[in-house]
Amino acid sequence: MSFLQVKDLSIKFPVEAGIVHAVNGVSFNLEEGKSLGIVGESGSGKSVTSLAIMGLLKDSSARVSGEIILDGDNLTAFSEEQMRQIRSTKLAMVFQDSLAALHPFFQIGKQIAEVYRYKTGCSKAVAKARAIEMLDLVGIPEPQKRFADYPHQFSGGMRQRAIIAMALVCNPKLLIADEPTTALDVTVQAQILELLQKVQKEFGTSIILITHDLGVVSEFVDDVLVMYAGRAVEIGSVKQVISTPQHPYTAGLLASIPDLNSDVANFTFIKGTPPNMLKLAQGCSFAPRCDYQSKVGAQCFDSLPELLQSENAQHVRCHLVQSGQKVSR
Amino acid sequence: MLLEVKNLSKEFKTKKTLGGENKLLKAVSDISFSLEAGESLGLVGESGCGKSTTGRMIAKLLAPTSGEIFYEGKNIAPYSERQMKSIRGDIQMIFQDPFSSLNPRQTVGTIVGTPFKVNGIEPVGGVKQEVQRLLELVGLNPDHYNRFPHEFSGGQRQRIGIARAIALKPKLIIADEPVSALDVSIQAQILNLLNELRKELNLSMIFIAHDLAVVRNFCDRVAVMYLGKMAEIGTSHDTFTNPHHPYTKALMSAVPLPDPTISRPNRIRLEGEVPSPIDPPSGCRFRTRCWKAQDICATTEPVLTALSGTSAACHFPE
Amino acid sequence: MMKYALRRLAAAAMLLIIVIFVTFGLFMAVPADPARLSCGKYCDEEMKARIRHAMEIDIPLTDQYYRFMKGLVVDRTYRANTDAEVKCEAPCLGYSFRTDESVTEIIKRSAPVTFSIALGASLIWLTGGVLIGMLSALRKGTWIDKIVQSFALFGASLQIYLVGWVLLLFLVIKWDILKMPTYTSPFENPIEWMKGLALPWLTLAFLSMASYARLTRAGMIETLSEDYIRTARSNGLSKKRIQFKHTLRAAITPIITIFGLDLGGLLGGAVITESTFGLRGIGSTALESVRELDLPLIIGTVIFSAFFIIMANLIVDLLYAVLDPKVRIAS
Description:
heterotrimer, B: 29% helix
């Protein structure tokens, strides 16, 4: 059994204008010690999926259905208190904006120590030592001194490291990182992503990395899940999906990314705009923008393709692929 | 030559610390470059490099501390608002955040029509007709003339910003991170639009971005900035295939690429982060993170020197 | 932090000196003749001259100011009506020739009443208001929240002289739950002290609690939406911990400011409260001094009030530095 199993997850938000179908029937697995990249644009539902795994939607207006099974426990059936107990100890999350994510009034070291102290019941001294150990682990120089610094005294990259230290302080088995490097300089991004890889290797932590950057997933994760309009459209090992994308959306995304190593100007783009999440399409959500829809016909608009296994152990949700045809890369 | 920037600098006074000292933030220090008509120049760099500040100085949104900006032969750096009036239409800017750069209380028609009203220009056929033509040109529905910004998506709002920028038929457009806030698939659409407009209207462009691949794609030449100084400048081809400055190399090396066939064991790992522009390192500002740094790097500032292909400011260029 | 504190202290001291100067100038430069006001029924020019001489107002204004300032630190001697010297011990805030007492003595008598009212009431409204505000914020949208909001509106719209009298009528006179408001020194009999002031405390607290509840509610709701609260939640910290340590601590800064100002003002004399309940604190003393046009007493009470408001502001500034590290440490 996989370490993390997400089965048919759907998340709806009631809003004034109706219901936002943020996530629709998403299923995927994650093995212990492996990393999964969830790729999508705004409105794809990738962040909301991670919030559901953390159980952070329980006290909100969101309606969550489906199952999330972590290490044998059905998290969707957990109460808020049960979730609270496993947060930080079994699973932890790192968010994007590090300055806003740290309490401005407390010392960074103390914030980390606080988590350790109250989750393990140890003494202040032990917690402080552990916090310094974690700051050192994530590569913050002079950890004893920096323990007493406040968030505004740290630079962006340092803060993100501190947040990672805080998330890992109780050694959780699953770490979810939601766009952890989007707000950082590219040279610092490389450092942070390498840190996450190191954590995965040394501690066997499973990692879910949420990003919009296909370059990041290509170099830093084992498997990738591509989401569009709240659905999983392609899943597979990152090597396979990036080199031979099977879903038209994935192919379109890859084709529209400018190439750093080529002089040839590439101005291809995916036509159209992301769909309205208030109205769930009957058929494939990507159909209106798809270059291959004409090849398949009305089926794309009428019926929702299923997520089925295809070549190279990839799973694709597409009529084109399931009818035996391929996208051209 | 359309634009020539010479020794441009910008320093900001920082807030008084509790100790009472007033430190200087050296945002841009002694930048020089030129731009021909119809050319596009990319300004790249990480946070604190001064690329946005440079863009704003050229657009005359910020007054330079020192240096000259020659537009069509005349130094416009000391120009007052009144003196700028006649050429304001020539130099326009496109901003980064489509969500905050449009006045939410004005209709699209008003926003795009403002340049005409402010400059007292009456286009042939009237303002409304011209605005609608512009909207169509950037890929928007001209019937949405009376809608408000919040009724549009991020990509569409950026198109509105572009329509406004090209209204007065500018010669030079400064685009400050025009696609950074957009989704990947929309980025490509907007870049495509900018490219077409550039060709159709024969625009010169200064393209400010942190995404190297986008800049390589879009720009004829590129200038790499670090902590307020110019590290390297040259054609896109030369700079990206054969960079001479260690920082340019490190920057390129750090970018993750969607190509699983390549492995990058030789990725250049830069230690630490960009130092504060309030107290930049002496001599070469990059030396604190450079693997080649020697004593001379701390004592003497390297000068931008022409090498094979690009010009780089380094004592030990690659 | 030290530098910040010293700078604030210096500013406060400067401000106090300026306030004294302006107050002094305003009153002494006023055309009303203090001599005539203190004179009594049978007054003639000679008597008025003698009074002016005794009050030391026949000398230039700047000399008067100098003697006044000196009197704040050194014992002062006035030439009295009866040609006998009148001693006014430091700090000498003036001498009321009407009641034949030094202003400092009068204030010393009335201050404890005002302080008692202020401290008791403020403690109740602060704890009560904050707790109710917190409850309201955490139960946003529920009926508890709506009740608290109405209560806030109600309390903010009422006036103390109405509420005071209504409560006096019911709680004291009709139902005999509370005692008639009187002042007993807490050092003599703390129980009586509390019983006697219970009504003014509750009345004042009821009116102010409302706005504190609202402020707390607003601050809490805003803070609860901050990213660092989401971090605390995703780290699995207990609800209580997040609510009190993380959220309240961040939301409390505007409340500290308002509290400081409110308390400062109250310590300087709650005129209406004291009149409503017939308590003889600084407030009623000030009122009386205005009614009787006792200029030295007016000056004294004004300066006394100003001192507390300036002090309150200073303490609030320093508290800010304690609470918010961005104020004391540059990035």
